[in-house]
Every structure is written in C-alpha cells, then in structure tokens.
Amino acid sequence: MTIKKYRIRKPKIVVVGGGTGLPVILKSLRNQSADITAVVTVADDGGSSGAIRDSMNLTPPGDLRNVLVALSDMPQLYEDIFQYRFNEEDNYFANHAIGNLIIAAVSEMRGSTYEAIQLLSRMMHVDGHVYPSSEKPLTLHAVFKDGTEAVGESNIATDRKTIDRVFVKNTNDEEQPKAARKVVKAIEEADMIVLGPGSMFTSILPNLVINEVGEAIKNTKAEVVYICNIMTQKGETEHFSDADHVRVLNDHLDSKFVNTVLVNTENVPEGYMNPEIYDEYLVQVEHDFQGLREEGCRVISTDFLKLRDGGVFHDGDKVVDELFRIVFGAKY
C-alpha cells in the first residue's frame, strides 16, 4: 500500500501526452499531493478508440480512459471492469474496452466528450483534472523527409520513413484546431509542465502542434520538463539520441522551450524485451550530452528504469521524486 504524502501547498503540475507512458507518471503523482492536470491527445485512430471515433464522430476515448483510471482511487474490481476488453471472437464488441464504451455513451448523453470526462472524473473520484487537448477529434498528418505524407496516427509508422514534422487538422471540419476549454489556463497557471513519457510524434506532439497549446507552453513561466523515452520506436524515432528527441520538440515550436530533460542511464539487459509483445521498440536511446547542451536544457541523468513483464518502462516513483525536487527548487 502506498502512503500518500501531504503538503501545505500543492504544486500545480500539467502533464501532456498520451499512450501508455502518461498513466505511469500520473499514478505516482497522485500519491505525492500535487494539483494535477492531464492534457491528453485526441488524435488516436486505431483499435477500439478509432472504431468508436469513426462510428460516433467522437474524440477517441482510449487514452482518456487510461488517464481517468490512473488518477482514480476506485476499488481494483471497478478498475478491472472499466478496463476489461472483450475477446476477439465477440463479433461487434471484439477488442472494445468497456471503459471506451462508457465514455462514448456518456459523451452521447451529454453531447460532448469533454463534459463526459468531467462527469466520469467525479464518479470515479479522480484526483486532479483530465482534459482532452481538443474538444473535437483530430487527424494527425506526418510529412516525411522525402516530401511524402501520411494521414492518420495508425499509418505514420507503417513505412518506417524519417519524419520531418507532424501537424493536426480537425477530422470533421476545416476549422483551425483549438485547445479544449481550461487547457490554456491550466498551462498558464502551472508551476511545471511535464511532457511524456510517450511516443514523440504520435502522443506528445499532437498536443503541442495545436497552436493555442504550443503558444501557451512557449510563453509559460513554468519549468518545462521532458521525460525522454528509454527505447527508440519503430517508424518514429529510429536511431534517435536523447538530444534528437529534444531537438524535434524545439523545432516543432520554433523555440528552445524545453528547460529540463530527464534521461535514463541504466542499461536494459540484453535480450530482456519480449519482441512478441513490444515489437514497436527497437534499441535503447543513445546519449548525446553535448547535443542536449546545445539545445539549452538542463540534463538530469540517472536510473529511471523499471523492468516489468518483458517490457521496459519508466519507474514512476523515481521520476516523480525528481520532478518534485525540480519544482520545489524552482518555485518554493
């Protein structure tokens, strides 16, 4: 059992991203008495989320579902039910997570995924705020170094081309993508902005390239911390060093806005990863400390590694301990 820490003043920490990396950090943050806001990508178009998005014209629920669970104190049985995924043989319901269907149903009932997430946050006793980065579903576009383009998050890594840049468009209209309500305000009032961990081009950047979100992060007085990925990712960050990750972030916003980067220095044991389960991850990210210095950011390098179930993850507690050392050193 984890004992929650309490502080007189809770630092305001905004965590931006999606995928499987974000919940790891949020679970540990929940035990550290922080005022947490999660800003979650809505550009996912694969699997259960993609099917619901296409059939109901909703923002994809999968990443939002995982974030709600990470910040909730509901009993384990309720969590297991919310996260249960139907078997492949179950015809129409195949591979759908029950939580995705609940979010879709409440979204239809309330006429808004944003409103659905706020209602479910209260029902699930979520400790913090959960906001989709946009209130409309977004389509992710990638422009490759050879000038070709891929449309849709699930298609970007298919050809394993080198990505030059990504951008988002509203899926169902021609309007400029806008930040969801309260997202910009949360960023402006934050003591710290945390990016990742997560897929660079498909989990983190889809949030930042929404103009209002990117501008708010560039202009914030908060400490902007990037949690660098431990492994390179097939079709996204092949052959990337840690400095390459930061360079891509800075280039997309045309500003050296990343203040601090957390870098794991612990080696992953050779042959540890199970390629049948984690087939998108390739090799460990190489270090380029000179390149990081050229990007103008402070580097904190130590053991952030957690090995579990044949996979490589960040140790949420170690990462969050470091985040609190930074935020209290910078603000208090």
From TrEMBL:
GO terms for molecular function: LPPG:FO 2-phospho-L-lactate transferase activity. Keywords: Cytoplasm. Required for morphogenesis under gluconeogenic growth conditions. It holds the Pfam family CofD. This is Putative gluconeogenesis factor. It is found in: Cytoplasm. GO terms for cellular component: cytoplasm. GO terms for biological process: regulation of cell shape. Its main location: cytoplasm. Gene3D superfamilies: CofD-like domains. Belongs to the gluconeogenesis factor family.
